[in-house]
Amino acid sequence: MDRRPAALLGRVRDAVEPPPRLVDWSLFAIVGFEVVTGLVSFTVGSASWWPLFWAHRIAGLTFVALLGFKLARVRHRVTDRRLWRRSTGLSVLTAVAAIGALATAVVWVFGLDIRLSYWTLLSVHVGFGLVLLPLVVAHLSTRFRLPRREDFDRRRTTLKYAGLLLSGAVVYRTQELTNRVLDTPGADRRFTGSQPREGEGNGAFPVTSWVADDPEPVDRGAWTLEVAGAVDTDLEFGYDEVDPDAEREALLDCTSGWYTVQRWGGLRVGDLLESAGADADARYVRFVSVTGYRWSLPIAEARDALLATHVGDARLSHGHGAPARLVAPGRRGFQWVKWVTRIEVRRRGDPAQWVVTLISGFD
């Protein structure tokens, strides 16, 4: 038996590598799974969702192994110019996007806060992932080959995929342990992957805007807050009439990759709803920004939310949502609507809010 390292490595790879066609379709399936779980992860911030984030990371590490099998199998098609085809450029571009997504993820989990202009590495990772999905679809279409019946040796294939997933879970836990033992910056990340921003007040955490939602500073003298919709009495307040009488500590987790814990001061939304007399059959509360951006919360959750006018001991700055922003514990940062000017009590949800988050701020 050949005991040279290359031969041993080859035998190990043969033992764990699924059939080529299954590898190709598995890569496509994992990219789709990663995009879906990644997008869903943007909308959840409570610890009960940790399995989603674990699944995303374990699938990503499994993708590393499958991509390695794929590249080892096809590398000669790139290195040998005689084998180039029209689709070779697409294949190279797909590989670059895949490696870019993986590389930015690896650097991020160890806590390196490298910025590319305005973007954090986590944002760049998301960008690579969104680009990768259509590239993988296009790449598959150039070499469309469905798996064969013999590719599905049930016991052997199941064991190989179980081994890959288990290895991904072990690597993930090892990475977390390494962060803790070496006390890397990544050790303080939340389960969402966000890194901490310490301090108190406006200057303690970054000013970010969702897509293009970035208005001119709001004139406090002209600003009003309305409470309307399914209520007994519409209410309207000027800035000087807003008396911040509630305070709470809450964690803001931004999808660009950071989180901060701050003391927020303002008005309990529940008190506003009580003053306006919310209808008994009302189900949602919608918070509307001066830009038209909006987000809705179930009414029970909204009652416990805060309409903040202060952070720390200071009034909110414009960049952080002055004159007033929503503070919704357990929600991600883009759902904490800034520059709130209207609170609407509603009997139905608002599916169109997803569209508004993408187009708000564009003229």
TrEMBL record:
Entry-linked Pfam families: Oxidored_molyb
Coiled-coil segments: none
UniProt-recorded name of the protein: Molybdopterin-dependent oxidoreductase
Keywords, in A-Z order: Membrane, Transmembrane, Transmembrane helix
UniProt domain Oxidoreductase molybdopterin-binding: residue ranges: 218-354
Membrane-crossing residue ranges in chain numbering: 21-42, 48-69, 90-110, 116-137
Cleaved signal peptide residues: none
Gene3D superfamilies, A to Z: Oxidoreductase, molybdopterin-binding domain (3.90.420.10)
